[in-house]
Amino acid sequence: MRLLLTLGLALVTAFSANAEKPLDLNAFAQQYYKTMTATQAPNAGAKKLEAYLALFDDIGNQHIPYQPDDSRTPDGKEQMRKGMSFYLGAHTLFESTLLNTFVFNDTGFAIRYKSHAKGIHPQSKQPIEYTSTMMEVIEVENGKVAMIRKYHE
Fold it and tell me: How large is the average pLDDT for residues 125-129?
């Protein structure tokens, strides 16, 4: 009986020692920025898009003022895949600089970055060029991005 109790205690201790460590949101924010900007590169393809989408579960996405609805839906990730696939590879030039990273306890982070892009709009076939400073506020649940809110400066 004593051996069984000792074995049980050893198993509990082993599982406790191997329990998941809290997510390092600073590192996660850097990974998010890197994979997100990779989807905007001129050579971006499905592989880069899927690497970005792998950071999500069911996702809400709000791009203010263009998307006023912040509802999370079970097909939110598929909606993002569809929307982003339309513009994938449309840039002929994309440059981005991460300006700030803010971490909010263990529930989220914000990144502020400046981007410059040139390309051809996939629908109108007209040249596009823009420079923008954005802030994305990211809510995290269970180690995955749950909500993205984008704001223009």
Answer: 94
**Secondary-structure breakdown of the chain: helix, strand, coil percentages, each rounded to the nearest 5:** 35, 40, 30
79 or 140, which is more confident: 140
Work out the burial of residue 108: count CB atoms within 10 Å of its CB; fewer than 13 is exposed, 13-18 middle, 19 or more buried: buried
Rounded-to-integer distance, Cα 62 and Cα 151, Å:
9
Residue 33: CA count within 13 A, CB half-sphere = 25
Write out pLDDT tens, residues 131-148. Answer: 999 999 999 999 999 999
The arrangement of strands across the sheet holding 144-152 comes to: 56-63, 144-152, 127-141, 108-120, 91-104
> Count of residues for the chain?
153
Write out the E strands in 56-107: 56-63, 91-104
Q: What average pLDDT does the chain have? A: 86
